[in-house]
Design a protein that fits this description.
It is a single chain. By secondary structure, the protein is mainly α. The chain has one domain: Up-down Bundle (Growth Hormone, Chain: A). α2 crosses α16. The longest helix has 54 residues. The N and C termini lie far apart (43 Å). It is a multi-pass membrane protein. It is found in: Cell inner membrane. This is Oligosaccharide MFS transporter. Keywords: Cell inner membrane, Cell membrane, Membrane, Transmembrane, Transmembrane helix, Transport.
């Protein structure tokens, strides 16, 4: 409860709220917009998401190294906000004309632009605020719940806005970006504990090729990558076309779209509630077990969506995501800071989580789009669920236990001393 007394906690909470307001508005309704306004089939829609992921693949290593070198300086975050400001104008005045010129070209350009501030930019936001939470002495998972509240709010109002004017959600994103920029400007930078020790090399010195290459020599890094491809990546791939699958069980598609927006809103508010207790739970069982549990729940949700397709059961499967996200978001950050060097936290997060995730999304968005068209959702979901459980099992086998690694992590950064 001490968090509530800190102005910085509310400042970062507001930043999370308005960033994920944009995230939820755009990504929740983008499949509908691409289909109804862009007139794209599932294969071409998959190309948009694949391009977003491919662009993020290029950005993530660059973003990660830059942010680790910057430490808590906010220049890169400001660049992401600048890109967000142009979401409304881009979709209103450029996206449809580009799709009219050529659907594939338009999908590629649109996906690349959106990735600058969403698929690619989210890593900057997450890693910056996680590092800031350690500097300001509050629990990352608690400030992250503002993102879940934003998702619920956006899903609820977004459904109403989209029915009235499909372009309004993108202009609302631009307005949210203005507020986000003001909140970022208000942030007052603090130092992390190890930064206060004059003997310890700062980020700009420590973040170099040799130390980054050491990350790739750790078995835990590759295990984390495989687990993320099988879980967080497949979570995104599964959710890309699930709104259309859900709506197909209604007599009138508009009724299905409206109902789904309400279900998504409830899910994200439940997610915010679970986010409150997620840090306590993950601290209790360990971050590695939290990630494994996340993958198991996703496996159950995907397989259940293939076989139990009554509307009320599909609603249950969607609501189960409210358990997954708190587990994943808290566990991934705690695992990285518990097993890897703290000064490389952004690089490891960008590569081990976002980069690995986008590799999978780049490949499987198009693959699953084709499978949906050729063999239907039922068989596609069976294939997806098998892939999930296999990848989670292999990744978990390779990953080091974070509770064991954390016993020595707190003194690692003090081993690198500036020469006298």
């Amino acid at each position: 409860m001490n968090n509530l007394k800190k102005a910085s906690f509310w400042n970062f909470g507001g930043m999370y709220f308005f960033y994920f307001m944009i995230w939820a508005l755009v990504l929740t309704f983008l499949p509908y917009w691409l289909k109804n306004q862009g007139h794209l089939n599932t294969g071409d829609s998959g190309l948009v998401f694949s391009t977003m992921a491919l662009t993020a693949l290029i950005l993530e290593p660059i973003y990660g190294v830059i942010q680790d070198k910057l430490g808590l300086k906010k220049y890169l975050f400001a660049f992401v906000v600048l890109c967000l400001l142009f979401v409304g104008p881009f979709v209103q005045f450029a996206f449809i004309p580009l799709l009219n010129i050529n659907p594939i070209f338009g999908a590629a350009v649109g996906g690349a632009f959106l990735s600058l501030c969403l698929n690619g930019g989210v890593g900057v936001v997450e890693s910056y605020i996680e590092r800031s939470s350690r500097a300001n002495k509050f629990e990352y998972g608690h400030v992250r719940l503002f993102g879940s509240l934003a998702g619920g709010t956006a899903a609820f109002i977004g459904g109403i806005m989209f029915v009235r004017n499909p372009y309004s959600i993108f202009w609302a994103s631009t307005c949210s970006a203005i507020i986000l920029g003001l909140l970022l400007w208000m942030v007052r930078i603090k130092k992390l504990d190890y930064q206060k020790d004059e003997r310890v090399k700062d980020e700009s010195e420590y973040v170099n090729k040799d130390n980054i290459l050491k990350v790739f020599k750790k078995k835990s890094f590759w295990g984390l990558c495989l687990l993320i491809i099988g879980s967080a990546c497949m979570y995104d791939v599964f959710d890309q076309q699930f709104p259309n699958y859900f709506a197909s069980f209604f007599t009138h598609k508009s009724a299905g779209e409206s109902f789904f927006s309400k279900v998504a809103s409830v899910q994200t508010f439940l997610e915010a509630g679970f986010m409150v207790i997620a840090p306590w739970f993950v601290n209790k069982v360990g971050a590695k077990k939290g990630l494994i549990l996340y993958g198991i729940i996703l496996f159950i949700r995907v397989l259940g969506s293939a076989f139990f397709t009554d509307i009320w059961m599909l609603t249950v499967w969607r609501l189960m995501a409210s358990l997954e996200m708190p587990l994943m978001l808290v566990s991934i950050m705690k695992y990285i800071t518990g097993v890897f060097d703290l000064r490389l936290s952004a690089t490891v997060y960008m590569l081990g989580f976002n980069f690995a995730k986008q590799v999978g999304v780049t490949i499987f968005s198009t693959v699953m789009g084709k499978l949906y068209t050729n063999i239907g959702f039922h068989n596609s979901y069976i294939f997806l669920s098998i892939f999930i459980i296999v990848m989670v099992a292999i990744g978990a086998f390779l990953m080091e236990n974070d509770k064991t690694a954390n016993q020595t992590q707190n003194i690692k950064v003090k081993k690198v001393i500036k020469p006298l």
